[in-house]
TrEMBL record:
One of its GO terms (molecular function) is DNA-binding transcription factor activity. The lineage of its organism: Bacteria, Pseudomonadati, Pseudomonadota, Gammaproteobacteria, Pseudomonadales. GO terms for cellular component: cytosol. InterPro entries: Tscrpt_reg_Rrf2 (IPR000944), WH-like_DNA-bd_sf (IPR036388), WH_DNA-bd_sf (IPR036390). This is Transcriptional regulator. It comes from Marinobacter nanhaiticus D15-8W.
Length: 138
């Protein structure tokens, strides 16, 4: 099962962007993430729509932070990326007529919803500048 690593990858980029002297091009960011610049532009556009980054076209242009890291939380970025589930655990529905499967799915779903609510509450309390501080200590 493939993990959705967009959140950690975007956090990585935002912290690097804070340490740069100027804008980061989509090509530069793509190099950091070992991905295609088109993927970077699509992802960064989601952040721009929410006011976390800005972009300038042309020579000398690129992506820059629009807010200080202290004003952006993990939750903010999670929401900007599409608010997908933080867990990749899936429920089965192959035998939807089975009472046992329905009971298992209900139990798992309840636990996952509770765990996700706790995790997202914690995400709201962690600003990106705290991640930057931790990266300097490592």
């Amino acid at each position: 099962m493939r993990k959705d690593s967009r959140l950690s990858r975007v956090l990585h980029v935002l912290i690097h962007m804070d340490q740069l002297d100027g804008p980061a091009t989509s090509d530069t960011i793509a190099g950091m993430l070992n991905t295609n610049p088109v993927v970077v532009r699509r992802t960064m556009a989601l952040l721009r729509e929410q006011g976390y980054v800005t972009s300038v076209k042309g020579h000398g242009g690129g992506w820059s932070l629009a807010k200080p890291l202290a004003d952006i939380t993990l939750y903010d970025i999670h929401k900007a990326l599409g608010d997908s589930s933080v867990f990749t655990i899936g429920l089965t529905d192959e035998h939807s007529n089975c009472a046992i499967e329905a009971a298992v799915n209900t139990a798992i779903d309840d636990v996952l919803e509770e765990a996700e609510a706790l995790l997202l509450a914690r995400f709201k309390a962690v600003t990106l500048d705290r991640l930057q501080y931790k990266s300097r200590r490592a």
